[in-house]
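On clarity, I found the account of how folds are encoded harder to follow than it need be. What matters is that the chain and its backbone geometry are given together, residue for residue. For the editor and my fellow referees, an illustration may be useful. For illustration, here is how one protein appears when written out as sequence plus structure tokens:

___
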Amino acid sequence: MREAEQGDAFAQARLGWNYAKGRGVPQNDEKAVDWYREAADQGHPKSQYNLGVMHEKGEGVPQDFDEAVSWYRKAAALAQYNLGVAYAKGRGVPKDDTEAAKWHCESANQGFARGQYNLGRQYYKGEGVPQDHSEAVTWFRKVADQGIHQGLTYLGVMYERGEGVPQDDVEALKCFLVAEAKGSSIAPGRRELIAVRMSPAQIAESEKRAREWKPTLVAPE
């Protein structure tokens, strides 16, 4: 119980299962749902699947087929992402960038931000797919639009260099400013480097755009 309360996803998942089955604690579907959700929100795939089952059956929550499908999709997208990483790093399977791109694409097409980011990097570097900076921008933008600093930083670099998009220092600095506010450790250095070549008016415009920026997509993870 202590580990679950301290935020350990595996302990939360185990406690959810215990409540669902009445193992060591009184059977309680509502508490099972609560602990599964804690773990699922940290990306624990089995808990995401279990939440889908409980929504489908109406156990501990009102029956909701749409919500069930949503959790099933999250579980599937994370599994596909992890398989892509396995192929990219050669963990448990022969290293194969083409297979990695295939599974990252499956995950990315379901809106999973980490899959989108990895697919963007593969297109940027030409690993497992033909190098295509425009396609890389497409995927980095999807990540950035969810307010995730890795996507914002990469998008800023591509605007700075004019890779896949017209070169645009103002837009690049805006991306770096937003990424920095979101916790990026890389964006501050990029911001300083690009700002030295920009006019005060350009910097002011970037700052204005950064203040007005809002995420346009909801991150499903």
Observations:
- The chain has twelve helices and no strands.
- The CA atoms of residues 26 and 74 lie 29 Å apart.
